[in-house]
Amino acid sequence: MYLTALSNGLIIYFLYRITDLLFQNKRICNLVLLLCMGCVQIFLYTTFLYGITLGLALSLAAFLFLLLYFKKEKMIYALLAMFLMGEAILVKSNYSIFLIAIVIFLCYKALEFKKLKLAVFAIAFIVISRLMSCTLVSLYEFRSGMEISSGMPKTLYIAMGMQEGERAEGWFNNYNMGTFVNSGCDIVKCDEIAKEAIQESVQKFLNTPAYVLRFYTKKIVSQWNEPTYEALWINRHHKGEFSKIVQSIYDGKLYTFLYEYMNVYQSLVYIMVFVCVLIRRKSWKMQQLVLLLVVLGGFFFHILWEAKSQYIYPYFVMLIPYAAVGMSEYLDILNLPSKM
Asked: Could you please report the per-residue DSSP string of 84-151?
């Protein structure tokens, strides 16, 4: 719980520092802090004991140290970035998308500066992340005296992401767990079942193009246009009774108020990100695009994977610096003073 609370504070700090290094504009940095202060989702996620928050803090820290390496050219920063990225993936494997964005960035820089060392760094990021994962599994196996299997095949999640569910298209419907248990936890058998389910879904999509358009439209919208990112839902699952105020937040008037507020806040962020991309479309530097690359990677990944608006939360937080840039550009259009 303390780590999660600390991670939320660090997320805001890292966003501020990263924005400063990327854009070197005081007003934009201040707008990042203001937007973070208004992002209720960040504060609500403090009580969610899961790898999303800690993994996000570690990923942002890795990117920050990588930027510091390019600024100061000290090897310690590069090594810290590699270690922190590996830690982030250990906490939550979805942050492999962040790793891919960093590798793309390093390969681009290697070609731009014609430095083989940066290409080696890109490989080192992948190798260290993999080694850390294998080392942890080996340690658990050694201490427990048991072999740890790979668990449910990833194909089960992809198959589930192509099915309808009670919540929305592609959302969790217990297909993965049910198939795994019913197959006797046989990894090979349930992988074959999942691949057959994927083929059936693909065939259905090919036969009914209008259906596939509706399916993926609803799947995308239900994740990216859900303003709470399940921040209110996850807090309902606590033992004990709530006070009247807290209860109202979860199913009363305060819930309605918070939901509508987060809806407006989400729209503001998306609009300002659009303004940012539109106005700066011809002046981007590669390092300024890394967080957007992560968001883009997450967008395509979660089209294929099991859907949850909870999974989109880290990407939404990563958009805050770009929303701040968009707000700053909009203030310039209005000819408002640059000092804030």
From this structure: HHHHHHHH-GGGHHHHHHHHHHHHHHHHHHT-HHHHHHHHHHHHHHHHHHHHHHHHHHHHHTS-----
Cβ distance 18 to 332 under 8 Å? no
40 exposure class (CB count in 10 Å sphere: 0-12, 13-18, 19+)? middle
Q: How many CB atoms lie within 10 A of CB 257?
A: 12
Does pTM top 0.90 for this prediction?
yes
- Sign of the C-alpha dihedral computed for residues 74, 80, 81 and 82 taken in this order: positive
Report how far residue 340's alpha carbon sits from residue 335's, in angstroms, rounded to the nearest whole number.
14
* Residues whose CB is less than 8 angstroms from the CB of residue 309 and which lie 6 or more positions away in sequence, other chains included: 222, 223, 224, 226, 228, 229, 230
Inter-CA distances, 78 with 14, 57, 66, 153, 192, Å = 16, 17, 6, 33, 41
Rounded to whole angstroms, the Cα distance separating 192 from 198 reads: 10
First to last CA, the chain: 35
- Alpha-carbon distance of 279 to 258, in angstroms, equals 31
Q: Is 315 within 8 Å of 261 (Cβ atoms)?
A: no
pLDDT in tens, 68-95: 999 998 999 999 999 999 999 999 999 9
Count of other CB atoms within 10 angstroms of residue 232: 20
For 323, list phi and psi in degrees, rounded to 5.
-65, -40
Distance CA 221, CA 242 (A): 32
Per cent of the chain over pLDDT 90 is 69
**Whole-Å CA distances, 257 to 251, 260, 261:** 11, 5, 6
3-state secondary structure 7-63: HHHHHHHHHHHHHHHHHCCHHHHHHHHHHHHHCHHHHHHHHCCCHHHHHHHHHHHHH
Vertex 332: Cα angle to 330 and 334 (nearest 5): 75
CA 101 – CA 45 distance, rounded (Å) = 25
